[in-house]
Write a structure and sequence with these properties.
The structure is a single chain. 28% of the residues lie in helices and 18% in strands. The chain is built from 15 helices and 22 strands. Helix 7 crosses helix 9, helix 9 crosses helix 11 and helix 14 packs across helix 15. It is globular. Bound molecules: iron/sulfur cluster (SF4). The site of iron/sulfur cluster has 11 residues, from loops. Pfam families: NIR_SIR, NIR_SIR_ferr. It comes from Oleiharenicola lentus. InterPro entries: Cbl_synth_CobG-like, NIR_SIR_4Fe-4S, NiRdtase/SiRdtase_haem-b_fer, Nit/Sulf_reduc_fer-like_dom_sf, NO2/SO3_Rdtase_4Fe4S_dom, NO2/SO3_Rdtase_4Fe4S_sf. Keywords: 4Fe-4S, Heme, Iron, Iron-sulfur, Metal-binding, Oxidoreductase.
Length: 589
């Protein structure tokens, strides 16, 4: 059947990648007939287009149960979701803004569907989290956010570990203004909290990485917009993370996600060595492996499903998998509600993939890993510093932002730098840093110096380059310690004492077992705890990593007082330096 993009789009305005992914939409996100808006009728004609309203039989929650779970067995947030969909509280938002009033517990949860987090008692105010697919933000948008936080926030914003932005200390009276201002900038906060799909991430150097196999931004943006336009992809059993990796020198940390796609190259040679099994035939080209079930806070990475997907199949497969999770995930116990536990309940991947297949109009193809070239090694700190782009004469400059925190003045200045030395493009990274691309050879060093003079850094360094921290007790009620403050103190101490390692290590401070800073993936990780004497402290884990250094860090020290952390970490680094063999990484040590 010949397929074409929907009439509402102008094919000429899309890149080839984007056209291919739109074809994927058309080719059959859903075959079962449940989701008629992207199916085909008996004559093979499209019955809907991306972005159309949900009109099919969605097996929606009934009066008696939610996807088979009796109402009486639902967890508290599930009951709130059943009583009122968090997407439908706009009038309540307006009413709370008009009355300058904070919401009750149930609406506090529902407001997170709009990216608004009432964070009492840590702060008697709202935090607002955006969605920035692929971490791609323009200078105009960053300047707009700077204006917004100056007027109705605390004058700053944080880069998160999902390459996203959060703004804090907004009063109820400001929330509607904040949401509309964000939308006027071409951004959104819809679904960035509660039980929804988090910011869709992608390799931050997509489109200019000299080693990338494919630019993955079209798929991250495509999925982002697909989610925004499909209500049934909200209100999942729990939050959900999806990432796309270009197969280049910088990773997207896909193995830490519920679903991770990474690009691989299939060649005549790999197919000769490892032919595709069964009747299926594979042509040489770029495909994606698909990993699922990552949740590092629960000490698990995503694992290979055996799937080998065409680029055009990524968005449909992601949507189908999310829908399987939506219908079958646990809605009684929040601790068991992530995808990992559904996979465990089903005894592994086969049933999950079988259910996924039922929602697709094309057959899933399985192939051994050997059918494709192995992924190139990742350049661990290739997001910091000046690097050549695939475009001759151009460079990207990776800029470290200490614990991800920027004030409005710094944001405006960064926007100016991106305009003056680049093309106004900025990429946020999952390492709480950012990248300014498209800087000519003549100006790359100048831009790096300007960034350094703003209080940022452009070098992966033992003491500074790789410290990340979650929000911590200054802004999150779950935190047992001031993670950002303690991370900063550690950076300052190490900078002064400089343990002179020949490689930078990643140090992750996280405030509670939600593990937003992914402490189990750090070379050194710290998870906050309250000491018996009431002081703030940390349990310290060592030897974690991701990608080719994948490993869950092991706990080595328990209950270290926060003010002793800088000296302890220095000692760990000095010991490592004196005992590691040449080239031995922290995870191997
Ligand atoms: Fe809050 Fe815990 Fe996440 Fe830190 S890890 S931001 S304390 S929920």
């Amino acid at each position: 059947m010949a397929l074409s993009p929907p009439e509402t789009t102008n094919p000429g305005s899309f890149s080839n990648d984007q056209k291919e992914y739109l074809q994927g939409f058309m080719a059959g996100v859903i075959a079962s007939g449940q989701y008629a808006y992207v199916g085909t009728n008996a004559a093979g004609q499209l019955t809907g287009a991306p972005g159309a309203a949900v009109t099919g039989n969605l097996a929606a929650p009934s009066e008696e149960n939610v996807f088979g779970t009796p109402l009486g067995d639902l967890s508290k947030p599930e009951r709130w979701k059943h009583e009122q969909n968090g997407l439908d509280v706009w009038e309540k938002l307006v009413a709370h803004a008009n009355a300058d009033k904070f919401p009750d517990e149930a609406d506090t949860f529902r407001f997170k569907f709009h990216g608004l987090f009432y964070v009492a008692p840590a702060q008697d105010s709202f935090m607002m989290r955006l969605r920035i697919p692929a971490g791609e933000i323009s200078s105009h948008q960053l300047r707009g956010i700077a204006g917004l936080v100056d007027e109705i926030g605390n004058g700053g914003a944080d880069i998160t570990t999902r390459a996203n932005l959060q703004m804090r200390e907004m009063k109820p009276r400001s929330i509607v203004r904040a949401l509309t201002r964000v939308q006027e900038l071409g951004l959104t906060a819809r679904g960035s909290g509660a039980d929804n799909i988090r910011n869709v991430t992608a390799t931050p150097t997509s489109g200019f990485d000299r080693d990338e196999l494919i630019d993955v931004r079209p798929y991250a943006h495509g999925l982002h917009h697909y989610i925004l336009n499909h209500r049934d992809l909200y209100g999942l059993p729990r939050k959900f993370n999806i990432a796309f990796d270009s197969g280049g020198s910088i990773s997207a940390a896909v193995d830490t996600n519920d679903i991770g796609f990474f690009a691989v190259r299939v060649t005549e040679q790999t197919l000769a060595q490892t032919p595709a099994p069964g009747p299926q035939t594979l042509s040489p080209g770029i495909y994606f492996r698909c990993e699922v079930g990552g949740i590092t806070g629960h000490k698990d990475f995503a694992r290979d499903t055996g799937l080998l997907l065409k680029p055009s199949e990524l968005v449909p497969v992601a949507a189908a998998m999310v829908r399987v999770f939506r219908e079958h995930g646990d809605r009684t116990d929040r601790k068991k509600a992530r995808l990992k536990y559904l996979l465990e309940k089903w005894g592994g991947f086969p049933k999950f993939l079988e259910e996924t297949q039922k929602k697709l109009a094309f057959p899933l193809v399985y192939a051994p890993r050997g059918c494709a070239e192995p992924r190139k090694p990742v350049l661990k700190h290739g997001h910091l510093g000046v690097f050549k782009q695939s475009q001759a004469g151009l460079n990207y400059v990776g800029i470290g932002v200490p614990v991800g925190r920027m004030n409005a003045k710094q944001m405006r200045r960064l926007a100016d730098l991106a305009d003056h030395y680049g093309t106004g493009e900025i990429r946020l990274t999952v390492w709480q840093s950012l990248i300014i691309p498209n800087v000519s050879d003549a100006f790359a060093a100048t831009l790096a110096r300007a960034a350094n003079s703003l209080g940022f850094f452009t070098e992966a360094h033992t003491s500074a380059g790789c410290v990340i921290a979650c929000t911590g007790s200054k802004g999150c009620k779950y935190a047992a310690a001031d993670t950002k403050g303690h991370a900063r103190a550690t950076m300052a101490h190490l900078r002064k004492r400089d343990p002179f390692l020949d490689q930078a290590v990643n140090i992750h401070f996280t405030g509670c077992n939600h593990s937003c800073a992914q402490h189990y993936c750090g070379d050194i990780g710290a998870i906050a705890t309250k000491l018996t004497d009431g002081r703030e402290g940390y349990h310290v884990v060592l030897g974690g990593g991701m990608d080719q250094e994948q490993g869950i860090a092991r706990e080595i020290f328990r209950g270290v007082a926060a003010d002793e952390m800088p000296a302890l970490i220095e000692k760990v680094l000095v010991t490592y330096r004196s005992r590691c063999t040449a080239g031995e990484t922290f995870v191997q040590w």
